[in-house]
Each structure stands twice: as structure tokens, then as C-alpha cells.
Amino acid sequence: MPSMAVRRVVLWDVDHTLIDTGGVGRELSARAFERTTGIPMREQATIDGITEAVIFRETSKLHGLTTTRDDFEKFAEALTAAHVESSEELRARGHGLAGAAAVLDRLARTPDVTQTVVSGNVRAVAKIKLNVFGLDRHIVWECGAYGEDADERADLVRVALRRATEHLGRDLTPQDAVVIGDTPADVSAALEVGVPLIAVASGRFSAEDLRAAGASRVVSDLRDAEQIAHWVTAA
């Protein structure tokens, strides 16, 4: 039986919070897009903090295409296959971000903390990305929410809370979770749902950008595992 003592569920973002793909991610998206639509991807819709389903739909519009859910599911399968095919290239060109492994390990040793993922990536791709860099060993995937689950980031947080409630066997409120992410979209989703937030200025957005979006707890990276663990348990 799951422990009834769990009191914090950490909702990790993936890209630019825990890892950097070194440009491989966009290349694989382009490969999957062409495999799905038959058209080379000339440009991609804005991706920061957006779910994969929305990125695919909006990128398709940029190419004059109207797509369906079936089209997205084919794209998701093609994207997963591309990541499997290119996992060695991803490992060679990308990297886990500074402090990511240490803070995941630190939180895993913290009583009553469960770690999962809330990401715009589809679940299979998120799993591949974290596995490639050895960052998946503490993630409880059943509690998370992914790019195929909802269009809006705040809805992903809600899905994760519901799944964590079911998986862990206790009623969780927004105050029982903590979002850790690197974009204003992560910030706004946490604020909308009422989940405490730790913003990490390790991606395309500065600490000032994240504070302007409403984040009060901001770090430049994940290297201070003790500070992050303190904020998680005190959130």
C-alpha cells in the first residue's frame, strides 16, 4: 500500500529545467513532422512552456495544414521513434543541467517527498530524455502529466494532482505539490492552480523575467540542493 505520509509532490519540468538537448530536440521534431505530414518543417511554433500537442497544431498551421487528434498521435509516435533512434546523439550533444542529478537525489532522501514530471513533452519522450542522462531513477511517472494529456499547462498541473491523489492513495491539495520549472508558463500555471513554485533561470528566461511573471522563489540553477530541498518542504 502507498504511504499515507506523503506530503509533497514535486512536479518537475524537463527541458531547460533538468536537461538541455543541445539542439537535438528540434531536429527530431522536424524529422517527426516530416514523417507525419510529408512536408519538411520550415519553421516551428513558439515552444517555451507549450505542450507538444499545441506545438504540432500551430506548427502545422504555419505550413498551411489543419490537423486532427489522430495526426497528433501519429506525430507523437514518430517523435518517440526518432528519440529512440537518436538517443546516442542526444547523449553526445545534450546534457543534464548543473545540479540536476544532485537535487533529484537529495529530494529522494527527503521523507514524504514524491517526484514526478509535468512537461509539455509526450510521456514516452520525457522518459527517454531523462533516461539518457540518468535522471529518471527517482521519477514516479504514474503521478505526472504530459504533452498528450492537455493543451494548457495549468491543466497539466491539475491532471498531475489528480493522478498523484489516485496513485498515492491520499487526497492532495495544490499546497501539497511544488512546481519546479524555467518558463513564465510554468509560473503562470502554478499560480493559476495555487501550487507553490520554484522557478529556475536555467533556460531562455532570466531571473528578472521569472519574477516579473510572478515567481517569488527563483534560483539561477539547481546547484544549491539544500536550498531547493528546504523550499520544497517549506512550500
Automatic annotation (TrEMBL):
Q: What does the entry give for GO biological process?
A: DNA repair
Which InterPro entries does UniProt cross-reference here? HAD-like_hydrolase_sf, HAD-like_sf, HAD_sf, PGP-like_dom2
Q: One Pfam family for this entry, by name? A: HAD
| Keyword annotations | Hydrolase
Gene3D superfamilies named among the record's database cross-references? HAD superfamily/HAD-like (3.40.50.1000), Putative phosphatase, domain 2 (1.10.150.240)
Under the GO molecular function aspect, what terms does this record hold? phosphoglycolate phosphatase activity
Entry-linked PANTHER family: PHOSPHOGLYCOLATE PHOSPHATASE (PTHR43434:SF1)
Q: What is this protein called?
A: Putative hydrolase
Gene source species = Actinacidiphila reveromycinica
> Taxonomic lineage of this organism?
Bacteria, Bacillati, Actinomycetota, Actinomycetes, Kitasatosporales
